[in-house]
Amino acid sequence: MKSQSITPLLKRLWRHISPHRHGQFKLLMLLMLLASFAEVFSIGAVVPFLGVLTAPELVFELPILQPIFQALKLTESKQLLLPLTIVFGGAVLIAGAMRLLLLWTSTRLAFATGSDLSIRIYRRTLYQPYAVHCGRNSSEVINGISVKANGVIFGIIMPALTLISSIIMLTSILMTLLMVQPVVALVAFSGFGLIYVVIIRLTRKQLLANSKCVARESTQVIKSLQEGLGGIRDVLIDGSQAVYCQIYRNADIRLRRAQGNNAFIGSSPRFGMEALGMLLIATLAYFMAQQPSGVAKAIPILGALALGAQRLLPVLQQAYVAWSEINGGSASLEDTLKLLDQPLPCYANQSVIQPLPFNHSIRLKQLDFRYSEQMPFVLKQLNLTIAKGSRVGFIGTTGSGKSTLLDIIMGLLQPSGGDLEIDGQTITLGNNIAWQSHIAHVPQAIFLADSTIEENIAFGIAKDQIDHSRVKLAAQQAQIAEIIESWSKKYQTIVGEQGVRLSGGQRQRIGIARALYKQADVIIFDEATSALDNETEQEVMLAIEGLSKELTVLIIAHRITTLKNCTEIVELGGSGIKRIGSYQDIMNDTTLTNTW
Predict the structure, then answer these.
(1) Stretch 387-401: mean pLDDT, rounded?
(2) With bands split at pLDDT 50, 70 and 90, how would you rate the model's confidence at 131?
(3) Range of the domain at 309
(4) 540 and 477, same structural domain?
(5) Residue 493: is its pLDDT beyond 80?
(6) H/E stretch holding 95
(7) What distance in Å separates the CA atoms of residue 529 and residue 347, rounded to the nearest whole number?
(8) In angstroms, how far is the first alpha carbon of the chain from the final one?
(9) Which helix (H) or strand (E) holds 94?
(10) What is the rounded CA–CA span in Å between residue 71 and residue 56?
(11) Would you say residue 349 lies in a domain?
C-alpha cells in the first residue's frame, strides 16, 4: 500500500491532539518568535560593538545614535566601549537563555503530547470489539503503543517543533543579514538553500523506504520476542533457541540499518556546509580588504556576517535534520494514526453502566454466525432458550461452534444474522455492555497477573477499592479459602507471572472466585477443567456445583461426565444443534457415549 504524503498525516495527528495542548503549542509559537528576536538582537549588536573596537570615532559620529549618547552623557568615543560591551554581552546571554527556555518548553510539551497519544491509543484499543482483537496480531498493537507512539515524539513532534522554530529563526537572521550586507546575505542563503534542496530531492525516496523498513521491522522485533519468550518451555525442550535468535537477528539488523541510514542522511550535510561557510567568509574578507576603506570598515560587517553564519548554518542544518526525521518516521506515524483512529463505543465515556434486566431467559433466535463473508457459517439458523438459574452443558466435536456460541452469548461476538434476546430484549451494540455486566467468564487458561491473590480475585479493581470481605467470601464459595489462609501471607501471596507458583486446580478456583467476586448471575465455563486431572477436576466441579441456584451456569466440557449435574446438555454439530437432552439421555445414547 502506498504511503500518504507527510502533510495530511500531520494534519490527522493535529486533530488527535487535545484542545488544551493546542493552546500550549500556540504559546510555544510565541516563545519561538521571542527567541528569534533575541537572536536578531545579538547579531545586530555585534556591528556597533566591533565598530567601537576598530573605529570608535565613526560610531560616535552616527546621527541616529546621538540621542542615546546624550541621554547617557557620553562626550567622547572611548566612552562607548563599556556600554556597548555590556549591551553585546547582555544580548548574547539573553539569546542563550531564550534558546534554553525554548528547548525546555518544546521538549516538555513534545513528551506530554506523546504521553497523551499513547494513552489514547491504549484506551481506544481496549475498547475495540473482541472480533477486532482476534483479527490482528497483538505485537502490532504493543509496538504501536510502546515503540511507534514513542517514535512520534522523537520522529515527528520534536522535529516538527524544531522545523517551525528553525524557519522562524532563519527568517529573522536572514532579515538581519540583509540589513547588514544584502547582496552577500542573499547569495549565501540562496547557495546554501539550493544545496539543501538538492540533497532533499536526492534523499527523499531513501528516507521513505527506510521509514517503511523501520515500521515493519520494529513490529517484527516485538513479535519475535513475544513468540520466543512466550513459548519458552517449548523452546528449551526443543532446543530451538538458534531459530528464534536468527528470526530476531534478521529483523533487528534491518531495523538498525534503516535507522542508521536515516541518521547519516540527516547529519552528513553539516560538515560540507560548515566548510562552505568558512570559505565564503574568507572570500568575502579578501575582496572587502581590497576596497579603499580598508580592513577597518570591513571588520564589523565581517563580524556580523560571521556571527550570522554561525547561527544560520546550524539552523539550516536543524531544519534539514528535522525534515529528514519527519519523513523517516512517516510510516510509523501512519501506523500510529490507524490506532488513534479506532472508534470508541458509545458507552466509553459513561461512568456508570445500568445493568440490563435479566429475570427470565436467554434466547437465541434464528442465529447465524461466520467470522467473515469469505468463510463458511459456524452457526446457522440456531434456536435455543436458556432459563435463568439453569445449568446447561455444551458438547460437540472440535470446530462445532461451542466456544463461538458462548462468545455470542457473552456479547463478545455479534451475530451475522438472527438475534440474541434477554427477557425478550434484543442485544445490540448500544446495550451490549449493559448485558455483559451480568456475565463472568472462567476460561481454560486463567489469566493471572503477577500480583497478590487478593488482586487477582478482584481483577480489574483498583487496589485501594478492593472489598476484602467480598474477596474472602468469593474464595470460600470457590472452595479455595482454606488453602489460601494456610499460606503465611494469605491473600497477599504473590502468584508469579501467569500464576506459575500455583497448581492448575488452584488457578481454576481463583478464576471461579474472580467470577463470584464480580457478583455476576451468569457464569460461563469454557472448558475450564479440561487441562486438569480427574481428581482436581472433581474438586473444581464440586466448587461449581456448590454455587447458588440463582446463578445461570453454562459449561463447555471436554469430558461428558463433567456435565452430570447439568439440567440439560446441548450437542452442537453441522452448524447448529444436533440434539438437546439430559445427562442420562446422553449416556443412554450409544453413539454419543462412544464419541465422548
Answers:
(1) 84
(2) confident
(3) 7-340
(4) yes
(5) yes
(6) helix 81-126
(7) 34
(8) 49
(9) helix 81-126
(10) 18
(11) no
